[in-house]
Amino acid sequence: MKHMVLIHGTWCDGAVWGEFATKLEKMGIIVHTPSLRYHDLPYEQVMEKVGAVSLTDYADDLVALVESLEEPPLLLGHSLGCLLAQMVAERTEIAGMILMGPAPTADIFALYPTMIRCFIRHFLRWGFWKKPMPPYKDEFFTYCLNVQDPSLKEDIFKTLVPESGKVYTQMAFPFFDKSRAGYVDFSKISGPVLVITGSEDKMTVSAIARKTAQNYAESVLVSLTGADHMYESGKFQDKTLSVIRAWLTEKNFI
User: Fold this and answer.
1) What is the total count of domains within the chain?
2) Domain, as residue range, for 68
3) Are the C-beta atoms of residues 132 and 232 closer than 8 Å to each other?
């Protein structure tokens, strides 16, 4: 059975995968759902600890997990988790990647209006580069869960925790980051890549997914008409899983 490491996105923890992970397991996949550093702690503890954590810190933890497995796994990332998946794949052997609504690597233009509006409240705070970024409810509902039912929006928001201000500074202003953490050497990454985007994704727009796919010779890009950013939950979960199953079957992973 093939191992798959699921890498969650901004404000979430490993528990966000829920039913999505269960359905992957039913396909015959051994699923791992780590939480990014500190994200599995209570909200106030995350607020105290996460502000200055870097992209490299997150990637270091994930590389250690990948290298502890008995064989190179598939990586499945969502949003920020897609950038991290690519950082991990640059450093260690993997079987392939699934990137859902990918956050941009440093080579990709990211200043789209909806993405700016989603995070501008954080960047207007003095010291944003080292402060934790709390989940902003209005922005989360408007730009991440924009086609989901109100009850699901509320249920997911209750589970969110703060995100690293340093990570978002590294992503938004990579030219100021001396560590160049968000820059990925794509030539070091091998294996097939599936990129999934949604026509109504306002948090990481489809143009970013298209450019991400172009960075890999063995890539497939699938756009889900009507889907917002939350591919693993709600209205488009089954459609997303159907696309993943077809790709896994085509590549003989299941």
Assistant:
1) 1
2) 2-250
3) no
